[in-house]
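Exam prep: given the inputs below (a chain plus pyridoxal-5'-phosphate), describe the expected output before reading on.
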Amino acid sequence: MPQSGNIIYTPEEIRGMILGLDTKVRLDNGEMVPAINLDNAATTPPFKQVAEEIHSRLMYYGSIGRGMGQKSEVSSEVYEAGRETVKEFVGLRKNDDRYVVFYTNNTTDGINKLASALIESPDDVVLTTRMEHHANDIPWRMRLKQSMLTCAGTVGWIFQVSKEFSRPSIASAAR
Ligand SMILES: Cc1ncc(COP(=O)(O)O)c(C=O)c1O
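Solution:
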């Protein structure tokens, strides 16, 4: 049963927290049915609580970090406070300035930024698995001179895959 901290939620309770699960989409035959979301990573449905929170603050919306007006100040504060909330969510202490939370446009953008910060040389080696989405593959691969992508299995073994397998061209990998 899914669990968060000491709170245990049933699948029905979790479904109840998510917005839009009953929204219908049209099939080829014209029938309208609720969509089955098989790729949450690509299209994550919002939590109702998030939608409510955004809605309740929209009347105070002002540009973030760019204006002197009160709305801008309020919005900037909320935006910055969100970083501390994220820290807490991942088990860090709020205001622990050894860690920085930065917002990104999406997974690919985030991993691109991480890869450009972590890779110091094109000769670096990145351990990865065969099953990574391109979002967690190309950002590393494109910064490495050689095909040093290595495959790590679930039981702890590691082996280096062949050059051909590990480094298809970025163009073909992106297809
Ligand atoms: C499994 C998986 N991981 C990562 C991504 C990349 O996500 P983003 O579009 O946020 O870069 C996707 C997008 O389709 C995905 O399906």
